[in-house]
Structures are given as structure tokens and as C-alpha cells.
């Protein structure tokens, strides 16, 4: 019950406060990972495996240590008067630590706020402002995108990151508690840092990219299922989201992003994918869904659906965690 309560409280903190503006622990982990990379980097898969194991193992170990700490294993038993008080103190400690870890690893509220801000700038005609905001959502080249291109890029990022930033950490929190939360965020952060197919990281980043694929395999499909069921929230039809998933998700180069983007496209009744311009070049992505290309109004609908999916995922995670306690 403590894990379930902690997940819900942490989700509530994220909904209320968003990401910490200063001293974010994930940013601190990223800075530490950069220093570790200076020591571990070699142009080989083996070096990348070592890098991944050291950093993810450290994050998981921290979670295990925190769980043991609140369980009273590192504190003298005399600090509690009796067994009932000890159980109560342990439960409260588990809730607090789980809530803090959940708040730390979630990014759904900031994602939704950024999506709404992007829509505001596009609706007001502030294209330069929208272009300046896009890098906080994805790695597209904003200078070559018009208003509709910016809306599409933001919408696709919201679809993918609804799963990565909320559903997946909640899933792993329900499965493995605080160690699961911290280990997942480490995996996802390392993929964002080194999981690229370029000259420096094509071999070194292989382990990070593949580990992230595995870690998101089930959560992405949970996210897709919730998106499909909640399509009516934005005037869509579950049948359309399901059809887009079954028909189009496998076309995407990512085994997980394809599910998130295809179900979002189907729920919104738009077409995602196509010509996609990054700073390193242009890719021709497969199209997902049916209908017109997304407009600014569709970006707002995507934000509403994302928030609904996040709430449903938090409730589902709490329910899944509850029987384990």
C-alpha cells in the first residue's frame, strides 16, 4: 500500500509543481554521466555496456539503499517504542521516499505545459518564439519548419514522451518500487545522451539504445492501450486508434515510439510522420494514421489526451502496486 500511495502522491506533486527549476536530480545524474563517459568512452560496444551497467547499477543501488534505510535496517531498533510504531514509521518513510522518487523521475506536467506554450505562440503568430521553444521538446531543426511543421513536431514529441516521461516510470515504479523508478530514469536519460547512430556513439551508445528499447517495450504498449481507450476524450474513436496501431506502428524505426505516435494519430484523426528534418539531416519517416496533417488545434487536443493518459496510468500503477504490499 505504501508504494501505491507514494506513486499517487508523487504524481500529484508533479501535477502541482512540475519539474524543479533548479538542482533537478536528473540533470545532476546527466552531469555525472558525462564525467563517467570521459573515463569509460571507447569506440566499442563493450565500453558502452560497461558505461550502462555502471550508471544504471548505481541508480538502482541508490534506490535499494533508500528502501533499506526507510525499512529501518540501518537504524537502531530502539528508536521505535514497539512493533506497531515501527511498522507505521516504515510505511510513512516508504510513502515519502517513493513520492519523492516519483516526482523526480516524472516529466509529464512540464511536457504538457510546454505543449500548451507552443500552441499559444503558434496561435499568436510568434513563429520565432515557437522555434526557440521546440528544442525543449525534440531534436528537430526548428529553423526550417513553418507553423504546421512546428505543430507536428511538438505533437509527435508529446505522443512519444507521454509514454517515456510518465507511463514508463510509473510502470517500473509499480513493478520494482523506488529502485525501478530510479533505474528507469537512468536508462532513459542515458539513451537521450548517447543512444545515437552517429560517428561517436553508433557503437558506444548501442547498449544504451537497446536497454531503453527493452525497458519501454511493455510501457509503450500500456500507453498505446490507454490512448486507444481514451480517444473519445478528444473526440476520437478507439477503433481508429487501434487500426492505426495495428497497421502503422511497425513501420516506425522505433519499436516503442511507433506505438505511441500511431495511437495518438489515430485518436486525433491526423497523419503523423513524413519528411522529418533534424540538424544532422533529413529523414523520410513512414506515415502514421489517417487524415490531414496536424494543425495547432490538434496540438492542444494532444496535450489534453496526454494529460488524460497520464492520470489513467497513475491510477493503474497504484492499483497494480497495491496487492504487492
TrEMBL record:
Coiled coil, from the record: none
Q: Which UniProt key words apply to this protein? A: Cell membrane, Cobalamin biosynthesis, Membrane, Transmembrane, Transmembrane helix
Transmembrane domains' residue ranges: 49-70, 91-112, 170-187
For this chain's UniProt record, which GO biological process terms are given? cobalamin biosynthetic process
Q: Which GO terms describe its cellular component?
A: plasma membrane
Q: Where in the cell is it found?
A: Cell membrane
Q: How does it sit in the membrane?
A: Multi-pass membrane protein
Main localization of the protein described in the UniProt heading:
membrane
Q: Look up keyword Secreted and say if it applies.
A: no
Matches recorded under InterPro entries: Cobalamin_biosynth_CobD/CbiB (IPR004485)
Xref: NCBIfam families: cobal_cbiB, PRK01209.1-4
HAMAP family recorded: CobD_CbiB (MF_00024)
What function does the entry list?
A: Converts cobyric acid to cobinamide by the addition of aminopropanol on the F carboxylic group.
What the record says about family reads: Belongs to the CobD/CbiB family.
Protein name stated in the entry: Cobalamin biosynthesis protein CobD
Amino acid at each position: 500500500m505504501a508504494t501505491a500511495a507514494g506513486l499517487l502522491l508523487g504524481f500529484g506533486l508533479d501535477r502541482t509543481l512540475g519539474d524543479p527549476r533548479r538542482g533537478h536530480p536528473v540533470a545532476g545524474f546527466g552531469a555525472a554521466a558525462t564525467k563517467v563517459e570521459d573515463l569509460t568512452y571507447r569506440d566499442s560496444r563493450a565500453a558502452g555496456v560497461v558505461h550502462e551497467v555502471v550508471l544504471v547499477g548505481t541508480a538502482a543501488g541508490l534506490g535499494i539503499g533508500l528502501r533499506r534505510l526507510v525499512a529501518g535496517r540501518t537504524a537502531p531498533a530502539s528508536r521505535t517504542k514497539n512493533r506497531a510504531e515501527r511498522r507505521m514509521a516504515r510505511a510513512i518513510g516508504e510513502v515519502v521516499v517513493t513520492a519523492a522518487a516519483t516526482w523526480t523521475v516524472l516529466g509529464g506536467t512540464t511536457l504538457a505545459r510546454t505543449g500548451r506554450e507552443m500552441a499559444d505562440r503558434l496561435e499568436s503568430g510568434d513563429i520565432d518564439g515557437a522555434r526557440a521553444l521546440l528544442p525543449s521538446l525534440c531534436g528537430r531543426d526548428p529553423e526550417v519548419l513553418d507553423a504546421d511543421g512546428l505543430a507536428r513536431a511538438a505533437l509527435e514529441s508529446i505522443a512519444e514522451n507521454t509514454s517515456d516521461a510518465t507511463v514508463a516510470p510509473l510502470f517500473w515504479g509499480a513493478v520494482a518500487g523506488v529502485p525501478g523508478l530510479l533505474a528507469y530514469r537512468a536508462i532513459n536519460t542515458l539513451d537521450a545522451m548517447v543512444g545515437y547512430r552517429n560517428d561517436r556513439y553508433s557503437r558506444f551508445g548501442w547498449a544504451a539504445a537497446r536497454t531503453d528499447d527493452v525497458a519501454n517495450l511493455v510501457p509503450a504498449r500500456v500507453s498505446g492501450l490507454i490512448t486507444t481507450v481514451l480517444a473519445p476524450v478528444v473526440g476520437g474513436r478507439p477503433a481508429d486508434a487501434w487500426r492505426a496501431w495495428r497497421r502503422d506502428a511497425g513501420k516506425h524505426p522505433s519499436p516503442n515510439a511507433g506505438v505511441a505516435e500511431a495511437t495518438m494519430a489515430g485518436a486525433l484523426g491526423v497523419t503523423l510522420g513524413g519528411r522529418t528534418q533534424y540538424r544532422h539531416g533529413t529523414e523520410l519517416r513512414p506515415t502514421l494514421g489517417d487524415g490531414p496533417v496536424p494543425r495547432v488545434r490538434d496540438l492542444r487536443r494532444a496535450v489534453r489526451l496526454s494529460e488524460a493518459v497520464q492520470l489513467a496510468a497513475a491510477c493503474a500503477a497504484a492499483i497494480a502496486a497495491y496487492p504487492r504490499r
